[in-house]
């Protein structure tokens, strides 16, 4: 369960969200702390400046009227601002009834009495355990004179921490809500993603056991999972076809091997046992054995050629090849069959190009194409062999008047072991195409049901 994709995806999403929240929370808290501290210092500076100005104006007015120093109502100011007010300096204030707390320089820990500027610092007042964030404002009766003291306005740092804790608690609450929402969404998305993957995995297990008829789930949409499902379905179909082709091939090859072997065995047995005594009949038996042996050799050679081409272990020789003479050789091979079956068999050549290629393999390609044409052309039909050199390439066309090939079968006929009528090995055209590719060329097909077919061999015209 813990190793399944359905669990790991939501866990990964949640871990990523938690990490992102942790990093953003640390950054936000740090920024909030700096902002809160800066805002508190600004407030303390304004309060200290205002209270100091209020006292100086009141003190100057009292001095002009020869009255006693004014009572500094510190308690009321502290209640109004919510901050503590302290004084460091000359003893010019009335007694403690004003509520103002006087501190010595040592109790403050910072030289604020003689400072000519506003100072910010932290300290712990006598008799208290809390630390305060403080601002000192110098006191002077006239501008430019030496300060006679400093007014300190301070705020407990616990108030800042309380603000931070409030932010942290609200962030944590928001995180829990967000985590729940993201968790539900991640679980839903993981099920949407993993459901077809699990179905494909189950289908793959069945295919691995040899059950190629498994139903592959259809995934809607144009994403990667949908593409994978489509390709997986195509793979399953191709595997089923490959298995069917393999069975057909084994049966076909067994039949193709058994037929000549039976004939060879029969004729050899007749010759050995003396059943055939007539020299002419004996010669015919030996000719039949030779033909059937050659047939076996061609079959085994086709299988070996296909295996070499698939394994990319095929060697191509290069020599000067007279394409006109080569086509003549291929053409003459089927002349007797054409006369016997009444097929209009013609050959034409537009030029006699000599190119550098593997002549034996080119002859094999053309022979395979002609063999396919004679197989599908009915008696009394028409087959043409045409050679032409133009536009930097040499083309050899094999045209027949057979039944034609449907569009959906034009790709299949080049698959090994596939036969339209279930007869034959189905190796001729696949080998021809692979050989053409090995020689740097290609085979093109133009066919339609009812109008015959044209197979075109295109080779690069590396002319001599």
Question: Keywords, please?
Answer:
five-stranded mixed β-sheet; 3 domains; Heat Shock Protein 90; alpha+beta; Helix Hairpins; Beta-Lactamase
Ordered list of secondary-structure elements with their pairings:
Layout: H1 5-64, H2 74-81, E1 84-89, E2 101-102, H3 105-108, E3 119-123, E4 132-139, E5 149-156, H4 157-208, H5 224-272, H6 279-310, E6 319-322, H7 323-333, H8 335-341, E7 344-350, E8 354-357, H9 359-376, E9 382-390, E10 393-400, H10 428-438, E11 442-447, E12 453-460
Parallel strand pairs: 1-2, 7-9
Antiparallel strand pairs: 1-5, 3-4, 4-5, 6-8, 9-10, 10-12, 11-12
How would you describe what is shown here?
This protein is of the alpha+beta class. The protein is built from ten helices and twelve strands. The protein folds into three domains: 5-162, Beta-Lactamase, CATH 3.30.450; 224-310, Helix Hairpins, CATH 1.10.287.130; 319-460, 2-Layer Sandwich (Heat Shock Protein 90), CATH 3.30.565. It has helices at residues 5-64, 74-81, 105-108, 157-208, 224-272, 279-310, 323-333, 335-341, 359-376, 428-438, and strands at 84-89, 101-102, 119-123, 132-139, 149-156, 319-322, 344-350, 354-357, 382-390, 393-400, 442-447, 453-460. Helix 1 (5-64) packs antiparallel against helix 4, helix 4 (157-208) packs parallel to helix 5 (224-272) and helix 5 packs antiparallel against helix 6 (279-310).
């Amino acid at each position: 369960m813990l190793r399944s994709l359905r669990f790991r995806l939501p866990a990964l999403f949640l871990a990523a969200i938690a990490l992102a929240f942790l990093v953003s929370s640390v950054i936000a808290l740090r920024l909030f702390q700096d902002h809160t501290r800066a805002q508190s210092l600004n407030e303390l500076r304004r309060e200290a400046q205002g209270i100091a100005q209020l006292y100086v104006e009141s003190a100057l007015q009292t001095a002009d009227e020869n009255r006693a120093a004014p009572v500094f109502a510190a308690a009321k100011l502290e209640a109004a601002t919510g901050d503590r007010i302290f004084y460091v300096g000359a003893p010019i204030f009335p007694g403690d009834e004003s509520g103002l707390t006087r501190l010595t320089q040592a109790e403050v820990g910072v030289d604020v009495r003689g400072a000519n500027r506003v100072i910010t610092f932290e300290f712990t007042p006598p008799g208290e355990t809390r630390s305060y964030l403080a601002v000192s404002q110098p006191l002077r009766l006239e501008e430019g004179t030496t300060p006679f003291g400093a007014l300190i306005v301070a705020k407990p740092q616990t108030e800042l921490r309380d603000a931070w804790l409030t932010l942290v608690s609200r962030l944590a609450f928001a995180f829990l809500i967000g985590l729940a929402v993201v968790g539900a969404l991640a679980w839903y998305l993981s099920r949407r993603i993993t459901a077809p993957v699990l179905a494909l995995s189950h289908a793959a297990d069945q295919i691995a056991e040899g059950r190629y008829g498994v139903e592959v789930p259809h995934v809607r949409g144009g994403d990667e999972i949908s593409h994978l499902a489509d390709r997986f379905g195509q793979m399953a179909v191709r595997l089923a076809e490959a298995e069917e082709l393999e069975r057909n091939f084994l049966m076909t090859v067994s039949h193709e091997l058994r037929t000549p072997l039976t004939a060879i065995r029969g004729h050899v047995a007749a010759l050995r046992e003396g059943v055939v005594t007539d020299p002419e009949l004996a010669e015919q038996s030996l000719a039949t054995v030779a033909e059937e042996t050659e047939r076996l050799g061609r079959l085994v050679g086709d299988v070996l050629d296909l295996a070499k081409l698939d394994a990319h272990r095929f060697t191509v020789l290069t020599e000067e090849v007279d394409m006109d003479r080569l086509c003549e050789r291929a053409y003459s091979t089927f002349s007797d069959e054409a006369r016997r079956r009444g097929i209009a068999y013609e050959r034409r050549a537009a030029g006699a190009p000599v190119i550098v290629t593997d002549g034996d393999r080119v002859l094999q390609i053309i022979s395979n194409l002609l063999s396919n044409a004679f197989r599908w052309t009915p008696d009394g039909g028409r087959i043409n062999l045409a050679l032409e050199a133009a536009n930097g390439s040499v083309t050899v066309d094999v045209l027949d008047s057979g039944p034609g090939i449907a569009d959906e079968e034009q790709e299949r006929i080049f698959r090994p072991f596939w036969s339209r009528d279930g007869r034959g090995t189905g190796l001729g055209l696949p080998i021809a195409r692979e050989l053409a590719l090995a020689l740097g060329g290609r085979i093109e097909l133009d066919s339609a049901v009812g109008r015959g077919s044209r197979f075109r061999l295109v080779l690069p015209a590396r002319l001599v």
